[in-house]
Structures are given as structure tokens and as C-alpha cells.
Amino acid sequence: MNNWLKKDLKYIWHPYTQMKDCESTPPILIERAKGMKLYDNKGNIFFDTISSWWCNVHGHNHHKIKSAIKKQLNSLDHIMFAGFTHKPAILLAEKLISITPRCLNKIFFSDNGSTAVETALKISFQYWQNIRKYEKKKFISLDYGYHGDTIGAMSVSGVDLFNEIFSSLFFSSFKVPSPYCYRCPVGKKRDACEIDCIQPLEELLREKKQEIAAIVIEPLLLAAGGMIVYPKEYLEKVAILAKKHDVHLIIDEIATGFGRTGKMFAIEYVNIQPDFLCLSKGITSGTLPLAVTLTTDEVYNTFYDDYNKKKMFYHGHTYTANPLSCAAALASLEIFEEEKTIDKIKNLIPVFHKGMEKFRSLPSIGDVRYIGMVGAIELVKDKKTKIPFTFEERIGMKVYKEGLKNGLILRPLGNIIYLYLPLCIKKNEMSAVIEKTFNIIVHLNYLKN
Fold it and tell me: pTM for this structure?
């Protein structure tokens, strides 16, 4: 084993990893990256088909982002953001407000997706306390939703293998069935339903609206919950219900923001005005940690007070609005404009979706779903019964390991194999990724034509 890997296994505890597995399958030592390709110490090349955990938008080592970081480093690396400010944060806030829903006029900076959601939860909670609606303390989320790994974010996420062990630490919240069309919670077919799965949410709000502070939801794509693509009509109905019953709407675009769904933000597919918008991951194209929580003047103004110090928002992070991260984010947004990224992927998306459709012919593929540059296939034992493979069968991990042998990173979500493609991908690269993925699944022993 390489000496670097020996040191890694001696000192480092990796995320979402059973470290004992690393004795037989040690981590891959990546030495450099360019575009959508990663290069390891043995000369192997891997297509980064999941955008390095969904954050790499423009490809690795983009010259414009590197230049912006270096330039910023020459003047200011970091300052405390309480009582101080700097131009990159101001410019970034101004830019983000100009491209997000018009109702959102204030930004709170943090450093990752979980903290962006935690910030929204805490602001929403305190808002209702500030206006003396003290009973509004609970949150509603989807049972397949995922909003991060901190305690508050986990409390409004679905309880599964990711976080079950910590469930006794969660604060109490309400969960409603997800609009999971393949496994419809009300037993309907998509072409013969009127978004009937919204009914549990309607009933809950009708009965408990006095207790509810906010609804938290990922727009159009439940990412870590299984890359579940759901109808935009469901999101529209959620927004209508939130407004009708006087509860906040928190939109979590950590995974869907910055072009992933084919538009800059997924909420552009619908005409809604959320109370909060959480952004991270792609905001710096994966170069440096950064997150923001946008909210309205109405929310902000309930914290704005001359005399009552209890109305102040007592929350912050050491790396809030780090200048280097803000500079990287500004450069990333400039790339969207200069390279016309959203227009470019409009030509790639139909090709990608057509390529995904070919997976439907395979005997152990239960569902194929996609939106924008995200696609997923759900592996099942039987197409008719939709019976899933068990965790012990580790089907997804078999695909993952076979993918690595073929130069693909296909890190699964249980039985879900997905592609979360960087927006810099070329047409020939996309074709190669789809073809390799198809062949891997076809030739694995448990999938036979």
C-alpha cells in the first residue's frame, strides 16, 4: 500500500465510510483534477459523475475561480464578520439578490448546507417569538427529505440509515409523505392523479397551523432521499398552503441550485415567493465552503429594534462570509454569464435524458427519473412488485466498485444509482458516461437479459 494511504488510514476518519472496509478497499489517492476528470496517483482517470458530492459546477480547476481566489488572497484572507464587512460579501449579496425571487432582500452568510438550513430554522422560530405567536414552534418536512447532518437539519430530515442512530436527539417535528411517484404514498399513477399526495399536508396544516412555524422542502428533487423527481404542481400547492395557513416556506436549494435542474434555481419552474432560500454546494463550484440563507424584509424587520436586545439574532459562524469564498462565488456567477452555462446545457439536457431512457429496458431497473443534469435509476429485484434489494445485498456498492474499475464515480444512495453531472461536461463525455454506466449494470451478475 502507498505510504500516503497508510498515513491516511492511520490518522483519518472519512465521512459516510465504514473504515474497516478501507482495509481491503483503501481510499483512492487523487492528485489532481481538471474539468470533470480526476487523476489518481497510479495514473488512473475517473469521470467525476457526481460533481464531488454535487458541488462542482464548472469543472475542477477553472482558471477564473482560481484567479479570483489568488487575487483576493493578496488583499484580505479572513476577518470576523460581526461588526466588520468587506467588498466581496457586499458584491455577492447584491448579485444573489438580483437573481433570486424578488421577495428575498436580506442574506445571512454561513459555511455549508446544514448551517444554511439551521439558520433558516432558527430565524423562522425566532420570528414567531418576536411577534408573540409563541405557540408556533414546529416544522413540517417530507419523509424522504434531507437537509443536512447537524441536529436541527436532521430533525427536519427523513429518519433512515443516515440518521436513525441520532433520532433521540432530534427536536419534535411533523413529517408528511413525499411525492414519490414511483412509490406513490396514496397508490395512484402520475397520469391519473391530481397531486392527491398533498392531502396529508393539507390536513396537518388545517389541524395544527397554530403550532407550525415553517414547511421545509427541497424543490422538485429530493436528492439524498433517493434522487426523487416530483411534479412542480406539488411544490406550487405547498406554497399556496403555506401562505393560506400563515406558515413560512423554507426552500432548500443546497443540491438543486446553480443550474443543476436546467435553470439557475429549481424554483424558477414555478411562480412562488418563499420566505427563505438556502444555498450552498455549487455556490463556489466546490472550491471553498460557503452558504447563504436569504429571507424577506418582513422577516428581517422583526429583528430590527432599538431597545429590545432579545430580538437580535444570536447566531453566527467563524467563517461567515469568508472573503476568499465570496470571491470564488462571485467568479462562479460570472462564469455562468460569460460562458452562457444555462443556455449551453439546454442543448445537452435532451441528449442526457434520452440516454437515461435506455436504462428502462434492463430487467432490474424499476424506475428511471431525471431533471436537468441529474439522472437516477432505481434497482429492484422485481419490476412488477417493485421489491427493493436489501441493505445486506449491497447492490449499489457493487455498481460503485465496478464503476471505479471503469473510470466512473457512481457512488450510490442505497439502491439508487445516479448521475449528478458537472455543467462543464462535453457531449462526447456524456455519451461515454452513459454508455459505461449502462454496460456496467448489464454485465453485473445480478442483472441478466
Answer: 0.96
